[in-house]
Design a protein that fits this description.
266 residues; alpha/beta; 2-enoyl-CoA Hydratase, Chain A, domain 1; 8-stranded mixed β-sheet; 10 helices; 15% strand; globular
């Protein structure tokens, strides 16, 4: 297993910033699990985000330029946005990748800057243990993926299975594609709205991902093209899940006998 999660944190440590300014929260950093993690890696924690949001009143803009990070931290931040009594608008100023995409799709309105991108993929983790431990971890990751696909489906009104397929392919959406898929609502009309002086030009190291910045889908793809590709991926995944043929009982018995003979030397 490639240590993608550690690579993402290590490559982007101390590159970004999180701050509250007027009625805007700038999530221009990696998302980490706690204040303690933020002290070690840098990044924005759910505690810091929630404290800043609760100190605000009235409409709030959550401005996002983040390569992602801890999925459960992203969940906690998304829940804080849901519980905020005022109106929240997400602005994707640069990139909203991985866990940061949850921040983009949670509010009722998501605005993407021209040239920005939103990325969805399957959850990652780092594990230690025996075969049983890794099976349990794989089962947990599958459950996490289902909950994330449900979030995208809730935002878009499209089937969760479609997003599960796009997550498996690690999909990078341009603003037009995100709007076509129902993950975003509009493209910012004024380039100055992206506030490049606030850090939108931060150069994230996205090498931990397989298709960054946009090799998975061409920017010219229309809604029908993206839906067609998603349907193809669903069919491919279904084919992979076809049950394997029943094992030959004689061959199985031979393997058992061979294992017994080899056991003393293992």
């Amino acid at each position: 297993m490639r240590p993608n999660l550690l690579n993402l944190f290590k490559a982007n440590a101390r590159r970004g910033q999180f701050r509250a300014e007027a009625n805007s929260l700038f999530v221009y950093d990696v998302i980490v699990g706690s204040d303690a993690d933020a002290e070690w890696f840098g990044g924005v924690s759910p505690e810091a985000f929630t404290r800043a949001l609760r100190a605000m009143t009235g409409p709030v803009s959550v401005r996002i330029n983040s390569p992602g990070g801890d999925v459960f931290a992203g969940r906690a931040m998304a829940q804080a946005m849901r519980e905020y009594p005022g109106e929240v608008t997400a602005h994707v100023d640069g990139v909203a990748a991985s866990a940061a995409s949850l921040l983009a799709v949670t509010p009722a309105r998501c605005v993407m800057a021209p040239g920005s991108m939103l990325m969805i993929h399957q959850a990652w983790t780092i594990g230690l243990g025996n075969a049983g431990d890794f099976r349990q971890t794989a089962d947990l990751l599958a459950k996490i993926d289902l909950t994330i696909a449900d979030d995208y489906a809730a935002k878009s009104g499209r089937p969760a299975q479609e997003f599960a397929a796009l997550m498996a392919a690690e999909t990078w959406f341009t603003p037009a594609q995100a709007i076509a898929m129902g993950l975003a609502d509009e493209i910012a009309a004024d380039l100055r709205a992206a506030r490049p002086e606030a850090g939108v030009e931060a150069r994230w190291d996205l090498s931990a991902y397989s298709h960054a910045p946009n090799t998975a889908f061409d920017p010219s793809l229309a809604d029908a093209d993206v839906a067609r590709i998603a349907a193809q991926i669903v069919l491919q995944l279904d084919a992979r899940q076809t049950p394997a043929p029943a094992p030959d009982p004689i061959a199985h018995r031979r393997r058992q006998l061979a294992a017994r003979l080899l056991a003393p030397t293992a």
